[in-house]
Amino acid sequence: RMLNNRRGATSLRWLRALLDHGIEVHGQIVVCPGTNDGTVLEGTLLGVLDQFPELASVCAVPLGVSRHNAVAGLRPHTRSEARATLETVHEWQQTFLEVLGRRVVFASDEYYLLAQEPFPPCKSYEGFPMHEDGIGMARMFQDSFQAAPGGGGTGGAGPTTGFFAWVDGAPAEGYRSPRTSEPLTAESLRSRPQPPMHTESRIPHGAPVAVLTGTYGASVLRPLIGALDRDDVRVLEVTNHFFGGNTAVAGLMVGADLSRVLLTEPAGHRYLLPDVCLSRGQFLDGMTPADLPRPVEVVKTDGWALREAIGNP
Questions:
Q1: Which of 33, 92, 149, 197 is most open to solvent, judged by the fewest CB atoms within 10 Å of its CB?
Q2: 126 within 8 A of 107, measured Cβ to Cβ
Q3: Exposure on the CB side of residue 115, measured as CA atoms within 13 A
């Protein structure tokens, strides 16, 4: 029923075949409230332990519902449903730890934001095996933002080779498009330089700063920026009208929404834009930073890069 395919469940035979041949597999559970949460989610995790314990990791992510979705019965989580899912994941982490010696299952950052719960410490992410899938990104950003230069802030628990590293090293065509024009490898990803700034009208470095981000990003950034005690730096939240629904991540910001927000903002300020929303210099709606009504500075999406960009290392 979930796949709208009466033979869909047979797909699990291919998962078994991959694991039997020593292929490293990471799984994702898209949790749909009222459909596969609650006792069904419990049964899914029991099935992982019983039938697929070789899985490298499994992440639980909340269903994303855009304004284009027309499937009846699909809806975003409530806060209480998000909290219930977190409780299930945390309980099963302990079960997996006792039986397999590792946590296996992790909840996406969105769940902690929806439930208004603090993120776990870095060490509990066990090397961030699904960092690019939104598992522990916010925790790592917080730590790197507050870290001393070169400290990393993760206590040695930062991401290993990433979940998508092999794809980033492959040709972009047919896989995923890199955010920069140079060839990407696992090594270049770890040492990727800060992207160039878009500076049509050279804004003085001492000008007031606004950090552009999505609704979820604003929840993470506001307390971090507030702790700096600087009245010249603010967070500028961009609501996603392009996709609509509960789309709230910074990586899905598009030029049309950024333009709508920037049109009402004063000239002469510095506007910082995370590079995560760009692919080959374009937003998902085809616009580019040069099309925006205010000049923006594209900043690498990590805490320390942001600290440097706002001039508060």
A1: 149
A2: no
A3: 19
Q: Which of 112, 118, 116, 141 is CA-nearest to residue 128?
A: 141
- Identity of the amino acid at 166: W
Cβ–Cβ < 8 Å for 180, 192: yes
Residue in 311, 306, 67 with CA at minimum distance from that of residue 204: 311
Sheet (strand 209-213) strand order:
233-237, 209-213, 270-274, 297-299
Per-residue pLDDT of the chain in tens (313 residues, 90 and over written 9): 778 888 888 888 999 999 999 999 999 999 999 999 999 999 999 999 999 999 999 999 999 988 888 788 889 999 999 999 999 999 999 999 999 999 999 999 999 999 999 999 999 999 998 887 889 999 999 999 988 555 555 544 555 444 334 333 333 344 344 444 444 344 443 444 444 444 444 677 789 999 999 999 999 999 999 999 999 999 999 999 999 988 988 989 999 999 999 999 999 999 999 999 999 899 999 999 999 999 999 999 889 899 999 986 5
Alpha-carbon distance of 149 to 136, in angstroms, equals 21
What single letter denotes the amino acid at residue 133? D
- Report helix, strand or coil for 184: coil
Tell me if 302 sits within 8 A of 272, measured CB to CB.
no
The sign of the dihedral angle between the CA atoms of 257, 258, 262, 263 is: negative
* pTM attached to this predicted model: 0.80
